């Protein structure tokens, strides 16, 4: 009689290694912020659907994380770009953007409310230059080329 543990795939089996490779591809696409490519890759193969089937709310969680990242960097974004990044369109897109994110849609632009991460901040750079440093620059301007 075969034991229950022998029915599990070994680390070298093609299905397990293929699954790990596919998950790694998805991870890399998200890490690179290649969101449109992430969704097209996810929809490209049934194995991806099998891999995420047991993760409750996987796509919603990914969309929320993408939206959070976007909200930290922009105040407005073209609707078509955001649709591709979130992998959704139409009424589902409107509900997610308005209901879940709390953002506004004005024509072809999605407005992200200001927050501490996406607020434009002016910076003032002040440098203290000593007279010796400045005098060297002036001296070099009057030197004759060799």
TrEMBL record:
Residues 17-121 form the CSN8/PSMD8/EIF3K domain. Keywords: Cytoplasm, Initiation factor, Protein biosynthesis. GO terms for molecular function: translation initiation factor activity. InterPro entries: CSN8_PSD8_EIF3K, eIF3k, WH-like_DNA-bd_sf, WH_DNA-bd_sf. GO terms for cellular component: eukaryotic translation initiation factor 3 complex. Gene3D superfamilies: Winged helix-like DNA-binding domain superfamily/Winged helix DNA-binding domain (1.10.10.10). Pfam families: CSN8_PSD8_EIF3K. This is Eukaryotic translation initiation factor 3 subunit K. It comes from Lachnellula willkommii.
